[in-house]
Amino acid sequence: MTHASYFNGDTPNPVPVYVTPSDDGAQIILSRPNADDVIWPASDIRTVSDLPSGIDAVLRLTSDPVARLYVQDAGTLPRLPHLNRRAPPKGRGRLAMWAAGAVAAVALQIGILIPLMADQLANFIPPRAERALGEATFEQIRGALGSDTLGPLRVCEKPEGRAALNEMAATFAPSIPDNGEISVFVLNHPMINAFALPGGYVVFFRGLIDAAETPEEVAAVFAHELGHVVSRDPTRHALRSAGSIGVLGLLFGDFAGGAVVLFLTERLIDANYTQAAEEAADTFAHTVLEDAEISPAALGDMFERLRKKHGDSDGTLSHFLSHPTLSDRIDKARDAAPEDGDWSPILTEQQWADLQGICG
Amino acid sequence: MQGGWPPAASQETTSSPDGALTVGFVGRRGAVFWLALTTGFWSILTLGFYRFWMKTRLRRYFWGSIRPGGHPMEYVGDPWEKLLGFFIAVVILTFYIGVVNLLLMFASFTLFDGNVAGYFLSFLGVIPLWFYARYRARRYVLGRTRWRGVRFGLEPGAWGYAWRACVHWLVTICTLGILWPRMTFYLEKYRTDRTFFGSSKLTQGGRWTMLYRAALPLIGAIVAWVLWVVWITFIDPIGEIWAAFLDELLIELLGYEAFLSKGTAKPKNVWRLWLLIPLAITLYTGVVHYMFGARRIMANHKSAPGIAVRSNLRTGRIAWIYAGGTFFAYLVLTLGIILLSLIVLPIFGFEVLAQITGTDADLTFDAPRWVAITASVIVYFGIFLLWSVVYNTFVTFPLMRHMATTTVLPEHHGLQSVSQAARDEFAEAEGFAEALDLGAAI
After folding, report:
1. CA distance A122 to A130
2. How many CB atoms are closer than 10 A to CB A144?
């Protein structure tokens, strides 16, 4: 026989009871003083879990959400078959509905609403604001790729190299509509990549300049990024990520928020523009290169050689290499170069050497 | 079988000789540690989704440890409903954070040429939501707390709480904190007057001015700070060190170069800088004494029909729990991180570690990127897990124990007439608090 306190689920007053099993063991009988016995079906009895371990226990019924039995010494209880079994789940349908809703809401925003708004807003953003956005994004990327001890990623500023880079930029200046400002930088990082940012920022990683064999190849990538600048792809992209960072940070909660922001900053560099945007930038590059008396085939050469050298699957490679229609783009670049083209070098031997040494 | 009927009535009530109902605490620190460690481990394996179970199980343990009158409190919150609440909050908040932030950012860049204004406005917009979420979270936790089978609860009123909290904060800031006790009192009164146990409603008595008593050490600490600063800046200038420090601070804060250090004499009576240590301790204990002293005073003025509450909590003890517990938690965390890196290092090698700790620009990327990412994710989550484990063990646990064992119900005959309250069906649980990252507090 077991002593216990019975709580009927209505008043917080403990009723002292004796607990005894019924003859067939299918029920337990709680005998109260001056009141009817309470009968609990043994198979419906569960313990309240995660209580501090001790000899006591709190029992409940699956059929009654509030009644409780507090047993001082659980060792004296009669056999209860399902004491530690889980209660049947409830409301899972609603949960699934909201889970689906949450996924749909996030997908709708990241996939449709935010891009749509960003595209519209990008048309209205004034040039000054666009430059400010680009500058902020640039600093964000430098910070994310830099190290804790050495600070943000270094901008390569060796004067001779800088002069060569300016020379290259000046070649393309006439192709920029509305006298838009172009700022070009080289970051001291081994990644083979280049990207454009809002407000006419074109940024090369040192790795790309190291990987190029001729200045024309660098110029070709430059022209391609200018294509993005002219069509304002980076502005749309930066506005999108300004919205999306918050959404994703929310999803991952307190744990992984920081990691997600890092990941997204990486995405800013590996900007996956649409295929149409890439093609438009290529087409722009072909025209600009031809105007500057450089063979558009240089773009194809750059792509091709990098692919041969690193293969398609190398994760450290830049976005243009992972593009599915790369071969197509190489062919197009080659086709864009007229057979009888009259090409002239964009930089002198000395200038090219200076550019290669811009990071010192 | 011994004794007659009714069986052993004395075991039912753990009350002091004067008939007051005391609160016991039976949890053990080691058990909390293991529970937090195992559930935290699962949280990592499930990319954070098990955290709803982790929180639920820890709460069940803590609640079950608290024994007013010898009977355990019970936490009946369901992890699935927390998950559901989180999803609901995500659906609603993504709109705010995605669309509204995008517009704010656009406006900020267009009008102010920078993102600072956007971040500021975005932050400002979250503040009322934050109070809203706090109230809702409290309502959820109380609504899922029972004692002797009877439910606690908090009436709806989160928006009322949110705007009151905003106004009180504004008033407090405008009065340089002089009316802080007023805010403490009225916000607590708002919550208390809506709290119930079964059919019995709690009432907050007293006046807001009574909380100034709890603020005395804090006021003393602030006065001491002001005197000290005046002393070493004007009365008997300490000289170069101090001026150079102030210069730095001004440049850092305002971009303003004052060059106070020009023409000042050599540093003198430098020992006065050592006073910073006792001053800091005084300020810290002052703050803790105010926060918990106010809580004690207000607890002593809480009542329900036939029920009175008395808190004997000691603020010095709580200051020690926070300071000592946090220190100890850091110590254990550091040891844990060293241990973790000893495990991770042989698996992934030093190069990966160098990549995790910050990209060395001249490093060649030999290791596959996914290895680096996996390793950094493990380390990142591991640190969060360890922190949560040690904090629960060394801060939350002793705090709970102290708060529980120092609470007494000197008068409790009103319990006889309490009856059950209806269940608070609460779809979004503490989803907003979780999503807004205020879930850390139990």
Report:
1. 9
2. 18
Contact A210, A356 (CB under 8 A): yes
ipTM: 0.76
Distance, in Å, from the CA atom of B127 to the CA atom of B422, rounded to the nearest integer, reads 31
* CA-wise closest residue to A125 among A134, A138, A113, A114: A134
- Number of independent structural domains in chain A: 2
Residue A83 lies in a domain: no
The partner residue sitting opposite B102, judged by closest CB among A13, A243, A249, is A243
CB B149 within 8 A of CB A9: yes
Locate tokens 């001026």: which residue? B243
Distance CA B44, CA A255 (A): 9
* pLDDT on residue B227: 92
Q: Which residue of chain B comes nearest to A71, CA vs CA?
A: B71
| Whether A282 and A331 share a structural domain | yes
Total-model pTM: 0.76
Closest by Cα among A151, A134, A123 to A242: A134
Rg of chain B over CA atoms, in angstroms? 26
Q: Are residues A179 and A247 in the same domain?
A: yes
The list of chain A residues with pLDDT below 70 reads: 87-91, 147-149, 178-179, 242-272, 306, 309-326, 341
**Which residue from A17, A98, A117 is facing B102, i.e. has the nearest CB?**
A117
A44, A76, A108 — which closes off a domain?
A76
Q: Which amino acid is at B403?
A: M
Position A87 in a domain: no
For residue B358, the chain A residues in CB contact (below 8 A) are: 146-150
Indicate the domain borders of chain B: 207-300
- For residue A337, the distance in angstroms to the closest alpha carbon of chain B comes to 35
A109 with A188, same domain? yes
Is residue A243 within 8 A of residue B105, CB to CB? The reply is yes
CB B109 to CB A130 under 8 A?
yes
- The CB-based long-range contact list for B179-185 (8 Å cut-off, 24+ gap) reads B180/B215, B181/B208, B181/B209, B181/B211, B181/B212, B181/B214, B181/B215, B181/B294, B182/B208, B184/B208, B184/B211, B184/B294, B184/B298, B185/B211, B185/B294, B185/B298
Say which residues have a Cβ less than 8 Å from residue A45's Cβ, sequence separation at least 6: A28, A59, A60, A61, A62, A80, A82, A83
Assigned token pair, B321: 């729990």
Dmax (CA) for chain A in angstroms is 112
- Residue by residue, DSSP assigns B353-387 as HHHHHB--TT----S-HHHHHHHHHHHHHHHHHHH
B74-117 pLDDT per residue, tens: 998 888 888 878 877 777 777 777 777 778 778 877 787 776 77
Q: In this structure, what token pair is assigned to residue B119?
A: 């971040």
Q: Which two tokens stand for residue A28?
A: 């337990």
Summarised one tens digit per residue, pLDDT across range A32-49 is: 888 888 888 888 888 888
Question: Are the C-beta atoms of residues B140 and B430 closer than 8 Å to each other?
Answer: yes
* CA distance linking residue A187 with residue A154, whole number of Å: 6
Are A258 and A149 within one domain? yes
Give the structural domain span for A263.
98-356
Between A and B, how many CB-CB pairs are < 8 A? Answer: 232
CB contact under 8 A, A133 and B109: yes
Peptide bond into B6 cis (omega under 30): yes
Closest-CA distance, A24 to chain B, in angstroms, reads: 23
